[in-house]
Design goal:
heterodimer; A: 153 residues; alpha+beta; Glutaredoxin; 7 helices; 46% helix; B: 511 residues; alpha/beta; Rossmann fold; five-stranded mixed β-sheet; 16 strands; 41% helix; 15% strand
């Protein structure tokens, strides 16, 4: 991991009140995950202990301590999605990608995560791919989307 | 200027193809050498008609929907730019009964205007409240909010005026306004729709709150699941600053108010106000013991107003039209309007803003049109994952904070998730426990451990292991969670669990 980038992000933001989350978001957006070395740099820059930053990183579902696949795919597990077949879609996602939640496909193209509500509850079930949200997703649309992400396979 | 065509940029509209429709309309207009003025508005909230395309005509704004990109050439051919009839035509948008029968006060502009146009915002009643507020003494602003009867729309329903008065009275050189935009409840999307469709309304409400209590800094704590709202809010704040709605001298009054959006990181508990404050301070989102109230010692230890997005966005109209105007809507101690959200298995899902007092029956059938699957409704969950499951025999309940509480349910943030008769209610009860286990902040034992034990107990019931004994144990466990937890997360998880058991015992193998 390019720690000079981490250093630059920390220096730019350290003066903001409550800077930890904005810094961690920026590191992850730029470098994909937050390594233990990055945690040490953030701790140093904010004059906090590594344990404190580690505690923050591990508390929030968004922050990752390891690199993920090329695409992050989140399947909504909220009640509104369940009311429209969300549980089946969850199973289908795992089965068709050949991985469980919190895992990455063997080819490294997709990391699969659960999410509790995308706020798309009148057009459920919903999934999120990167910053795009898709509604009324059925199995064939899911397969089509994944096909595009995985190079038409 | 060309003919004005509206295609929503709202997340839900986009999730079912609105962006593709917008691109297709632009391309087709270009191909035909027609001049159009394409506006990406918010959504009107009629999600079964999305993507809903509107055209400005001499007869008013007319609607076509649901439109797919494939329909676009055909719409041009039919003459939709002149409001021509077509199989997707719904006439004048504001005359569509679903919309016409609503009372849109807080959502007056959502879907109507270009979300980032301050001039359209002002032309449609925006900034009128703030213009009044800048010349009012703080006590008078707070009095107007108190008088209106406005209560917290996030779920707790605490009177907003009393909270504001506490912060106004609190000593401190620095005070804060925090908008709780961590709309984590499944089945809710009102905050998101407002932020995407009328962001200045939230900004105006926060500035008024700042003037009322003497706060000069505001934060919007936005969940990371809302990337479009993030972009819209940041763009709106920038423009509001340029127009002096924000900054060192709000509307030239000499009074300062600054505003910033902060992104959450995927933690449901951060919708709880003290966990939210911890998160804003850069810490783990763990709940604080109360007292002290955030109004006395909130963000960075300073007096802080924490209000939900809809609460704050209801303030401008209270100031501009008067507390009495707002208060005239509603029933009992639930005054004004509520932004209900119809979600899940519902034919006409979307946003219904109505005065308190409407019944679930009216919401589910008159507005919702029953299930989309065509099967009977078996249960609805009102108020998010911590809300009770309500069976059809209780659909006569008026949506009113007190009436719901009296029957062991809650209005919460107004989300209504509909399930048909294929739902297994023991599975939903188990999910409530699983969700709590997953999202508990871990600070108190009843919530952190109780929820895990709850999942285990329900698994034993499902496996047919001594069901009556285990259900008794479940009730005892729920009692511990309800009365022993630090906040509503553990304290209210028993509501969906016990309501499922009470109303649908047959799903638990009990009789």
């Amino acid at each position: 991991m390019d720690l000079s980038r981490v250093q630059a992000i920390v220096e730019k933001q350290a003066g903001r009140p409550g800077a930890t989350l904005p810094i961690l978001h920026d590191i992850q957006a730029e470098l994909g995950y937050i390594s233990d070395e990055a945690i040490a740099v953030v701790a140093e820059g904010l004059n906090l202990s590594r344990a404190e930053i580690f505690g923050v990183v591990t508390f929030y579902a968004d922050f990752r301590r390891e690199p993920v696949g090329k695409n992050l795919v989140q399947v909504c597990r909220g009640e509104a999605c369940q009311a429209m077949g969300g549980r089946k879609l969850e199973e289908h996602a795992c089965r068709s990608l050949g991985c469980e939640f919190h895992q990455t496909t063997a080819d490294g193209s997709v990391s699969l995560e659960p999410v509790f509500c995308l706020g798309n509850c009148a057009c459920s079930p919903a999934i999120r791919v990167g910053d795009e949200i898709y509604g009324r997703v059925d199995e064939s649309q899911f397969d089509e989307l994944m096909g595009e992400l995985r190079g038409g396979r | 200027m060309g003919i004005r065509v509206y295609v929503p940029s709202d997340t839900t509209a986009a999730s079912i193809g609105a962006d593709r429709v917008a691109r297709a309309i632009e391309a087709e207009a270009k191909r035909r050498n027609l001049s159009i003025d394409l506006v990406r508005n918010g959504s009107r909230g009629m999600f079964w008609l999305e993507p809903l395309v509107e055209v400005e005509t001499s007869a008013g704004r007319v609607a076509y929907g649901p439109v797919t990109a494939k329909d676009v050439p055909e719409l041009f051919e039919a003459g939709f730019l002149n409001g021509a009839s077509h199989r997707l035509f719904h006439g004048v948008t504001s005359e569509i009964p679903w919309l016409k029968q609503q009372e849109r006060l807080t959502f007056a502009r959502v879907g109507l205007i270009d979300p980032l146009s301050l001039s359209e915002y002002e032309a449609n009643g925006g900034l009128a409240g703030l213009r009044k507020a800048v010349s009012m003494p703080p006590e008078q602003i707070v009095a107007a909010v108190t008088e209106s009867g406005l209560r917290g729309r996030g779920g707790a329903a605490f009177p907003a005026g009393i909270k504001w008065q506490t912060v106004l009275n609190a000593a401190g050189t620095q005070k804060y306004i925090v908008a709780n935009a961590d709309e984590g409840d499944s089945g809710t999307f009102a905050d998101r729709m407002l932020m995407e469709g009328d962001p200045y309304c939230l900004i105006e409400g926060m500035v008024i709150a700042g003037l009322a209590v003497g706060a000069t800094m505001g934060y919007i704590y936005l969940r990371s699941e809302y990337p479009r709202a993030w972009n819209t809010l940041n763009a709106a704040i920038e423009r509001a600053r340029e127009a002096q709605v924000l900054g060192p001298s709000v509307l030239g009054s000499g009074k300062k108010f600054e505003l910033e959006v902060r992104l959450g990181a995927g933690a449901y508990i951060c919708g709880e106000e003290t966990a939210l404050l911890e998160s804003l301070e850069g810490k783990r989102g763990q709940v604080r013991a109360k007292p002290p109230l955030p109004a006395i010692s909130g963000l960075f230890g300073c007096p802080t107003v924490v209000n939900n997005v809809i609460t704050l966005a209801s303030v401008p109209i209270i100031l501009s039209c008067g507390a009495g105007f707002y208060k005239d809507y509603g029933m009992g101690r639930s005054r004004g309007t509520m932004t209900f959200q119809l979600a899940g298995n519902i034919r006409h899902g979307g946003l219904v803003e109505k005065a308190f007092g409407i019944t679930l029956q009216q919401l589910l059938y008159d507005f919702g049109g029953g299930t989309i699957s065509g099967r009977p409704i078996r249960a609805v969950q009102v108020g998010g994952p911590l809300g009770a499951y309500v069976p059809p025999k209780d659909f006569d309940l008026p949506l009113d904070y007190e009436a719901f509480t009296a029957r062991g349910a809650m209005v919460g943030h107004g989300g209504v998730v509909v399930f048909d008769d294929s739902v297994n209610m023991m599975q939903m009860a188990r999910f409530a426990m699983e969700f709590c286990a997953e999202e508990s902040c871990g600070k108190c034992t009843p919530c952190r451990i109780g929820s895990i034990r709850g999942v285990e107990v329900l698994d034993r019931v499902a496996a047919g292991e001594r069901p009556s004994e285990n259900l008794e144990l479940l009730e005892s466990l729920c009692d511990t969670m309800q009365y022993g937890s630090l906040c509503a997360m553990g304290g209210m998880t028993p509501f969906p669990v016990l309501s499922a058991l009470k109303h649908f015992p047959e799903d638990f193998g009990a009789s």
